[in-house]
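Chapter summary example.
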Amino acid sequence: MNERLMPNIDSMEVDRTSIAKLLSFDSRMTVSHNTAEIIPKASWQDKSHAFARWMCTPLGACIAIYGLNVVAWGGMLFLLMCNAAPAMCHPSCDSLDSSRRIWIEIDSQILNALFCVTGFGLAPWRIRDLYQWFFWRLGWSEASRRKGFTRLAEIHKNWFLKSQEPSELPISTQQNCPAAEQATPTPLWKMDVVVWGNILNTVFQICLAACMWAMNRFDRPSWTTGLFVGLACVVAGVAGILMWLEKKRAKKASEHPGALLLIPRATQPITPGGKSGNYTSIKPEL
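The structure predicted for these 286 residues follows.
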C-alpha cells in the first residue's frame, strides 16, 4: 500500500464511526443511477391521516361500509351460534320457531347477500382471467399460449413478477428497468392458484346462493350453508394471501437499504472530500 495513505488511518476511523451512526437511523434508500436519496419511513400518524383521507373517497367509503356490515352481521351470527342470548331460546334453542333460529336465518341471508356482492360483482373479471388462462395452458399454438400468459401477467402486474430475457429488451429499457422486475420471477403455479381460487369462490357463492334462495329454513339441510361458506372463504383466502405475500416480496425487492450502499464504501480507505458528510473513496495503489 502506498505510504501516503498511512496518515489517513485516524480519519478513516472517524469516517467509519460517522457512517455507523448514519446507518443507525431507520430510513429507506432509493437509488437513481449513481445517487442515493434517503426517504424516512412514514410515522403511524401519517399513515392514519392517509387512511382517513382514503376513507373519505367514494371507493374507500363503500369498502368501509361493506367491511363493517360483514363484521357486524358475522359477529352477531357467531354469538347466536354460541347461544350467547339464552332469552331467545324459547321454547328451546333448537326449535325452528324460537327467536334464535329466526335471527340465525336473517343473519345468514344478509351475509349471503353481502358475499354475493363480491362473488357476483367480480365475476366478469374472474371469467376474463380464466379465459386468458385457457389460452395460456391449453392453447393450440405457442403464440396463443404466450399471448395468454402475457395478458395474465399484465393484468396481475401489481403482484406477479414476470421473467424477462435480456435479449428481448432494448438496451435503454434494460437500464431503466426497476429493481422489482429484476427480482426472482414469481412461480407460474401461483398464477394458477390465484385464477382458480377466484373463479372457485364465485362458483361456491353461486351454490350457496342457490341453497339459500331455493329452499326455506325448514327444508334446507344445515350442512349446505356451512360447507359452501367454508369452501368459498378458503379458496378466496388462499388466493388473497398468496397475492399479498407476492406483492410484499416485490415491494421488498424494490427497496435498497442504506447498509447495502454504504458498508462496501466503508471497507475502503476514505478521506473527507469537501463539506461535512461528503466522502470520496481512494483506490490504493499497488
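To summarize the output: The two ends are 6 Å apart (CA to CA).
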